[in-house]
Amino acid sequence: MAVPKAKTSKARRDKRRSNVWKLEAPGLVKCAHCGEYTRPHRVCDACGYYDGVEIVKKADETK
Length: 63
Description:
Blueprint: H1 10-17, E1 29-30, E2 37-38, E3 49-50, E4 53-54
Antiparallel strand pairs: 1-2, 3-4
């Protein structure tokens, strides 16, 4: 049976396990109403629309 000759250091052990830390960038989709990029299945932060329906009333920022 295989037996390690020496103790594996914490640094070596953690380096081996460190390949799972990488995160994927979230997917972004264009809003069908205003064209801004937003996360899927969320209300658009720019216009307040979701699935073609106005969910949140946004005040006009034009002066």
